[in-house]
Amino acid sequence: MTEWDIKKLQILRTLRDRGTVTATAETLLMTPSAVSQQLTNLSRQLGVRLLEAQGRRVRLTDAAHLVLRHAEAVFAQLERAEADLDAYLSGEAGRIRVAAFSTAVPALVVPAVQALRPAHPGLDVRVREAEAAEAYELLTAGQVDLALSLAAHAPTARDPKFSRVPLLADPLDVALPAGHPLADAAGLRLADLSAEPWIFGGSGPWSEITTAACEAAGFVPEQAHSAAGWTAILALVEAGMGVALVPRMAAAERRTGSGVVMRVLSADQPRRHVVAAVRRGSEERPAVARVLAALRQAAVRRETAHPEGTPRETVQPG
């Protein structure tokens, strides 16, 4: 295959534009003999004659003009590549892969991506839903660049492999059937529900969060039904089959209706702490830093838009 030397092609193009070897040498800060030698080498590499004498000067052959027509396309593509690389280095472009647990996708990741798009259209954020343990496995393996998880299920801040960024403390509200005797009770506390049948997953982060919150309130919840998805959990609550803790970030998955009452708990409001994590050192990559900043802003906007809330909200399972 023919060897194409970009530097020599640039010399040939400059000769075409400036007209003489001397002017070409002055433009490129070379000696005339170096210009002639480089063009002779290019002619040998391409296997065609590029220059011919014209009195005391030289002119480009038809083959040289043909070569330059193709070379211009190469130069243009290299300019675009350089522009893209500059954008990548400044964090204006590039692909960032994010793993996030289910409720964080609509509550944090989507708003962050939507905020990034107008100012940084070249930044390509790819999202992958994953539970806490899987998210960190993907991050460790280099399959994602950023993981959103819960602090209780994330590696500790002392883990040398990761840098953690706290995002928000997500309150947990309690879901009651609309006709429940405590649906309108003033100052509802988690301990008031100790005798209720509870609905939560059989294992995994949400099971542990529900159990830990109830134990902190002084009781062990009776698990009447096992469900992991919010649609199933709220459908069971609506049917009067039990009560459940629901993270406020899951509100985007609920439709307004009359089947379930969401109550903000009083003095013992439990919370789950949401964190973002990256491989240590990668937070200095401009594109990663931009996505982290957008996630922090999305968290602030969410906390501002969804304060402690009203004591009673009626919803329908989505």
* Helical residues, percent: 40-55%
Spans with pLDDT under 50 lasting ≥5 residues?
none
Number of helices: 9
**Estimated share of beta-strand residues:** 15-25%
Structural class: alpha/beta
- Report the principal-axis shape: rod-shaped
Terminal Cα span: 62 Å
* Rg, alpha carbons: 32 Å
* Main β-sheet description: 8 strands, mixed
Number of strands: 12
| SSE run | HHHEEHEHEHEEEHEHEEEHE
Mean residue pLDDT: 86
Textual characterization of the structure:
With 318 residues, this protein is an alpha/beta fold. Helix content is 41%, strand content 25%. Strands 3, 4, 5, 6, 9, 10, 11 and 12 form an 8-stranded mixed sheet that branches. Strands 1-2 form a two-stranded antiparallel ribbon. α2 packs across α3 and α5 (104-119) packs across α9 (286-305). The longest helix is centred in the first third of the chain and has 28 residues, at 62-89. It starts with 5 loop residues before the first helix and ends with a strand. The mean pLDDT is 86.
Short description:
The protein has 318 residues and is of the alpha/beta class.
Outline the fold blueprint.
Layout: H1 6-18, H2 21-28, H3 32-46, E1 51-54, E2 57-60, H4 62-89, E3 93-100, H5 104-119, E4 122-129, H6 132-140, E5 146-150, E6 162-177, E7 197-199, H7 205-216, E8 222-225, H8 230-238, E9 244-247, E10 255-263, E11 271-279, H9 286-305, E12 312-316
Parallel strand pairs: 3-4, 3-5, 7-8
Antiparallel strand pairs: 1-2, 5-11, 6-9, 6-10, 6-11, 10-12
